[in-house]
């Protein structure tokens, strides 16, 4: 069945090297999930694969959402179900372990935009030393636009924001102290080198920070994919079950990586993304895409 671009997912000329597999952990939040899967269906390039991993959702509406999109998308989309609820970390690990090659771990409360997977793929391919790539977003801490380290409103037209982000200067893929877990492309070689998310982080929170520090210690880079934009709603799906800031989980990160907070604080104080972010925000403002409220003025 054709998608919004008039293409049928998985048909046509495929890429010689497979696209990263999109792994979406799922728990409840059917409305957010539906919006996420609709955006995936409308933007994925030909040949891209999706693995949905349902963590024993107890909202009966979720099954209907999953079944509807699986039927519509065809054989390149697959579903695995946890036999019991195990939390975000185990669900994400199951998805990443079930596929081969690079992956994009995508929260089910995101809305992706045109060209997003192509952009993340270009980023990974630009440097074999990149372990993780995180796009710009409205709600992603150090990756947030237009205001840094803030929860920004969801733009009324995310695709317009994404087009301007992609067209505003050449991507430079600046280093980050940590990936941001709402949407992170992960190189398979980095997973092979340091392993998956640590199960000690349980329901979730801190697992991507620990992973980012482990890959950094092994000589890899965590970067911002600064020509891609993905909406993050936040507070949906796994959020109510443990993805809010957790002092116990953060202490676990600090016990293992005592310099973690110092690195993040130094990054925030230095704000090496400021020039790039300012350029993008000016372009968005000039195009009339963002309101003055969203720009924080």
From TrEMBL:
Identify its protein family. Answer: Belongs to the glycosyltransferase 2 family.
Q: Which organism is it from?
A: Elongatibacter sediminis
Taxon lineage: Bacteria, Pseudomonadati, Pseudomonadota, Gammaproteobacteria, Chromatiales
In what residue span(s) does the Glycosyltransferase 2-like domain sit? 22-193
EC numbers: 2.4.-.-
Record carries keyword Transferase: yes
Name this protein carries in UniProt: Glycosyltransferase
Q: Which terms does the record give in the GO molecular function aspect?
A: glycosyltransferase activity
Q: Which UniProt keywords apply?
A: Glycosyltransferase, Transferase
Keyword Isomerase part of the UniProt annotation: no
